[in-house]
Amino acid sequence: MALGDVDGDGDLDLLATGYSDNLVSVRLNGGDATGTASGVFSNGSDVRVGNNPIAVALGDLDGDGDLDLVTANSLGTSASVRLNGGAGTFGGGSTLATTANPRNVVLGDVDGDGDLDVVLCGSNVVSVQPNQSAQPLATIAGQASPGLSFTVAPTVAEAAIAPRYAYAGPLASATLLVFNAQGQQVRALPLREATGPLPTEGLAAGWYFARLVAAGQHQVARFYLP
């Protein structure tokens, strides 16, 4: 089971593996008809994966600003990658060859190149699958919203400057959220100025996502914390 904001609305959604059905069930938080019932999980979808998924992990594997999923498929030698279309709907992806009978899966930047790799644990063996995504993670991953302009810096690992944002749009009720690569919200800042420092005090170096929410719209940009 895993929790993460897969539909980009600021709350945690629920994913659970269906071992005998070869599925991952995605249930969205705020599941009433208006999407306002926080803590009520419904709607969503079932995602087809490999044989007998026993564990699922969430992380942005393709650098587009949303959480993708990976399952460890225990009866076989595979892991399933399913990419998030941006609203908690998963498709595409690939199948990774792994050690026999993987039992657990975690995501992390093992090789230090700025993207998430897949690590699986099997019977006395750990398998590391480097991320070979063709999409460069040094570019800004944005979700277009009319009337909003949002950029962050730095966007490359070599930049040794303090992370900053620039925003053009309505400041009333604008909020800046910061998420780590695993989709966990780590900072929140009500915006009062059009430019300023990103709220990163106390965070470890690495890649993060800044989500700007304003006027019922949002944009996401990826930045690097030196």
Model description:
With 226 residues, the chain is an all-beta fold. The protein has two domains: 2-129, 7 Propeller (Methylamine Dehydrogenase, Chain H); 149-225, Sandwich (Immunoglobulin-like), CATH 2.60.40. 0% of the residues lie in helices and 48% in strands. The protein has no helices and 18 strands. The strands form five sheets. It has a four-stranded antiparallel β-sheet with strand order 1-2-3-4, with no helix packed on it. A four-stranded antiparallel β-sheet has the order 5-6-7-8, with no helix packed on it. The protein has a four-stranded antiparallel β-sheet with strand order 15-14-17-18, with no helix packed on it. The two termini are 32 Å apart.
